[in-house]
Records
---
Amino acid sequence: MTNLMKASQQAIAAVREARLAIRNGFDKPTAGMAPGMTQANMICLPREWAFDFLLYAQRNPQSCPVLDVIEAGGHETVLAEGADLRTDIPRYRVWERGELVDEITDARALWQQHPDLVTFLIGCSFTFETPLREAGIDVRHITDGCNVPMYKTNRLCRPAGRLEGELVVSMRPIPADKVADAVIISGRFPAVHGAPVHVGEPHLLGISDISRPDFGDPVRIEPGEIPVFWACGVTPQAAIMKSGVPFAISHAPGHMFITDVPDAAWQGA
Amino acid sequence: MTNLMKASQQAIAAVREARLAIRNGFDKPTAGMAPGMTQANMICLPREWAFDFLLYAQRNPQSCPVLDVIEAGGHETVLAEGADLRTDIPRYRVWERGELVDEITDARALWQQHPDLVTFLIGCSFTFETPLREAGIDVRHITDGCNVPMYKTNRLCRPAGRLEGELVVSMRPIPADKVADAVIISGRFPAVHGAPVHVGEPHLLGISDISRPDFGDPVRIEPGEIPVFWACGVTPQAAIMKSGVPFAISHAPGHMFITDVPDAAWQGA
């Protein structure tokens, strides 16, 4: 983390333009934006809950890989020079006592009202989508211009302190003859969810209707394609919901924070 | 961590015998005991300091690789069935306001006086000593039956909250024609300090006299041998000292907790 790979000048310019557009009101899912640059999930909790959350992440590293932790009150990250975490995410969710109470596009007022928020940036499976596409694997939600489908599962994470909750997964339909490639390619990125947790058989994960995701949009599954499931950085939001955390802010699923770090930095990490 | 590799029945029997001997009074460094089983550094802090410490570990993973975290008051670990962290370490150090105030062999009374201690088990470079020896590399402190030499360095860790401190390193003299092997073999174990942080030139790490380690014992360096330095799990103790933590318990350097997990479990992790 102290010696993070540097991106090219061009890539940095593109990512800054993307963050500026977001700060100025862009309000859509970020999949496919600034390709090759690391996107991150965000979750902020009061200082009093920060240890429980960091421990939850440590105990569930496949779903909650920590990329950076910003100490109480901060809104800057070593992963993105000049970025402001209060404005540079397209859409935020606001949580009270485990319930979603609001969606907003600017979180500065909330940061002022809650000066002790600790912010966690968590890896996102978007990181291995560029290598998947480079290997000739269609990433359906990018092709179709929608949000990735995400599902709560029947698998419980290992609890930590007052936090417990289900594993959330993202799903990409993959042609049967490309599943092995998709496993191998994503497996090279253990720091951003890595290889799939489940291939096919959604009902074994407790997913009764694949066309109705809990977060994001449904996508086409063509004949000959298998639904492949990866651990997802929305897992912390499921823990917020289940554990009744008094207050939290997260990104809205699919609406990520885009960093200055190339996806390649996490390969083999 | 949830699917930890299982050791053989024989290895488990050997490690239980070792822990029982320790519980019954064995009071020496543990290098070479129960070969092939993971040994761990321990550090316990009050609940109120636990977030800062877990964040310090997250920001300095090479020196502070977290193997398990035991929540406030606990003294059992998923890494060793039936073990008691209050008695199954040969020697403990007791810290007050950053100063070493006592060394003891049974910590039960302290656990009772401080019911909110959070305990961290941290990886130890002993894990790659068995593979080093299997590759024909002499591990001097095992051969000579003493403690590994450890040194504070001039390299600062990345701070976290109220915690700051120097990187501590362990040193093994390695014949010049074996240094590359030692790098490659230890590099296969990133979860337990991994490859060396420095090879030769101790003065560049701020070590003025290699024959006077800050922790452990000095070892012979034969002609043709290079001192090779690995990040060390005593690094948290340096942070305790520098940051004036009000109360802490640690293992005494070299006097480790021996788990039920084979060293091989951490290979490539």
---
Amino acid sequence: MKTMSRKLNLVELRSLIRRNQFTQSTSGFAPGHTQVNLVILPKAYAYDFLLFCQRNPKSCPLIEVTDIGSPVPKLTTPHADLRFDLPKYRIYKKGILAEEVHDIEAYWQEDLVSFLIGCSFTFEQALIDNGLSIRHIEEDRNVPMYITNIPCEPAGAFQGNLVVSMRPFLAADAIRAVEVTSRFPSVHGSPVHIGNPEQIGIHNLSQPDFGDTVTLKDGEIPVFWACGVTPQSVAMSSKPDLMITHAPGHMLITDVKDSHYSIL
Amino acid sequence: MKTMSRKLNLVELRSLIRRNQFTQSTSGFAPGHTQVNLVILPKAYAYDFLLFCQRNPKSCPLIEVTDIGSPVPKLTTPHADLRFDLPKYRIYKKGILAEEVHDIEAYWQEDLVSFLIGCSFTFEQALIDNGLSIRHIEEDRNVPMYITNIPCEPAGAFQGNLVVSMRPFLAADAIRAVEVTSRFPSVHGSPVHIGNPEQIGIHNLSQPDFGDTVTLKDGEIPVFWACGVTPQSVAMSSKPDLMITHAPGHMLITDVKDSHYSIL
């Protein structure tokens, strides 16, 4: 459940996050500003992961990759410090979730490379602008995310299954949602699946692997988008020595406007 | 000037290219099939170049990156062999164009990584389908390409200026060309410039840096798109020990259909 008002202004929000005083999901906050997923890896893994992203652009659309050792995403958010500016992080050691923390100062190393990956929160504003209601925002929850049975295209040390986010819609709205999100290829784009969750290996919609469960109303169809939490499923399968990520739903808020990523 | 008929079927065309019997520009051949630019680098440069492509998606939209040492683009054209299947290659040694060759068997090394980069030939078919005429195809020439004064976003060892391809259109057609090519973000997408060439550092349209000159008729506006020959300008500036590329206009013909890369 949210404890902060979504009306917080951006400066205030960022200041609270940096001071570990805002530690919840950023969904619905700072509307219009692009939020991104985070993956941090030692340089030894960076080439394989960069290639993994190139081969899996629907789940891992790269917004920016930092220079080695720099915690500053200089191209999209030059004042940010990736060690502090997300509300919550996850530390994966050899594929095991070891810890959740509110900053990663203690984990920082000079050989780390940070990957900023597009997030579906970007197209949620476009969906709302088109009159569609986003259930998890309505219900003040984090978006539900599921590990599917769809294998990603492997690259070097990295392999694993696709993670999807789910939003329920009536049929006509689901169709409109396909149209609207197709215009945002660099933030996951169009859905990867629509309808029967079993077909992609999801057996129980009320038990998401990440995030919260939301209500599926009578007549609604679940619509599934590739999700930037996929690298966390990949970490579990591929077991790199260290992978630091955002906690699902707890994103970096960049300086770039969502509309920047829209085609047409 | 073309010497082969554009009506050659794909099997025949590929067979001729593999046997070094087709050595001209592939522009206008195999309509509907995606053609790609090629960059081959030793593994030591691969991370920096992959990052360069990520930071410069308009000029270097990656279609595929091969596994280290493999000349086979297994995801898009699994029967192809990148050592033989382009009509002409360029060998850059420390930034100097050392040689043009029709196959690169003699240059192959076990540590080479190949980058397939989207090509504007893909959207040319869409332009033609929209009733626009492509001057360099009309005039049976290679597309004119120019090195601009626009710096690319650097990455590690790689920096240099953007290369653009140019097509002249009347104003109404230029507007339509922007609309049509916007739908193809993964093959350079919308133009980077329209009108006055001087504004992007091009002083003489009749002297392209790559390809052929084409006629600019009264009332026509030159329209400029980011070009996959940019890595060759980058090679000249960055001077890697070895970079093998396609010769401008002499592309790999993949199995993927152009329409695959269209948004909406």
---
Amino acid sequence: MGVLPWSCRCGLNPTPSKNRGAPARPPPPPPAARVRRSKYTGQSVRAMPMRVLTVGKKRSQGTQLLVEEYKEKLGHYCDVEDTLIKSNPKLTSDVKVQIEAEDASMMQQLKAEDFVVVLDENGKDVMSEQIADLIGDAGNTGSSRLTFCIGGPYGLGIQVRERADATIRLSSLVLNHQVALIVLMEQLYRAWTIIKGQKYHH
Amino acid sequence: MGVLPWSCRCGLNPTPSKNRGAPARPPPPPPAARVRRSKYTGQSVRAMPMRVLTVGKKRSQGTQLLVEEYKEKLGHYCDVEDTLIKSNPKLTSDVKVQIEAEDASMMQQLKAEDFVVVLDENGKDVMSEQIADLIGDAGNTGSSRLTFCIGGPYGLGIQVRERADATIRLSSLVLNHQVALIVLMEQLYRAWTIIKGQKYHH
């Protein structure tokens, strides 16, 4: 058996390192030194209306409650709209046809004036401060709405991917689309607290 | 203004690329080619009891509902325990003292026979399949329980970090600790479906 890909004190590691049990990266510097900022922190940023487009059936109650919670928090900063696009509108059993139908439905929702951010596992890996940058950048483009697109269980189609003004990923993990929505909503709220230089309220 | 760190069709990008609007990484190969597997997929893996230790006050209703939902799903594969450690037991206003007190409380919960996985923003970036590997690896160590530790709003203390048998991170984003718990629970369920070679139920 090879070396485990994480530090391990289980005895299976054939060359126990002095660092066993230590974090995989060096310990972080003290909080004061590692405060990261968005380039827009403390600057005036245009509070464009936001819309989150998701594909799916009815959400679980827990997901819906959390989405409402973050919508309310985000509402202090900008208008937020939450649009659920019907999953598999053609009621097909062919995954490819399903993806194409959902893709077409989502394209119908996108207008020329939208700044479109697509969430995709092949997108750019971002930190929270970069989501704040993205909101600030989008505000400088002349777009009139910032729209985030999350695909259904089988992901997004090619038209929406090509329409994207930015493509990001939330994690290296494959996230359930409802969980991805929760993570996104929390990050949008966090991004605004970063821009405004405010304390994050847990 | 420099080049935006994501592909952009807003006109701010001084050297518009042919790839504007395209994903930041090359498009993924077709699904058939990119099926990733855990090294344990289809193998028998010891279903060690799992415990998730979190620090905090009362969770939001949405979070609790989602935790219960995934606990039930995970319960088909292994025993799952969800332990909430009291936040700031010394009721101090000094963040350092708070972290140390929470660290000590969490250490009291950890036994010698625990395989301890710490979630930390400086940990190893993992894919879902590697969480499946981690569960399989832990089952081969002789440990009798697999324990995941999530810190409170100010993160984990040094004792727990040093006690870790593995340190992973769920995202490059800074996640609220309740959101981190939801992501973890979903990944543990996903990991077991990967190990068992089963369809993921949304």
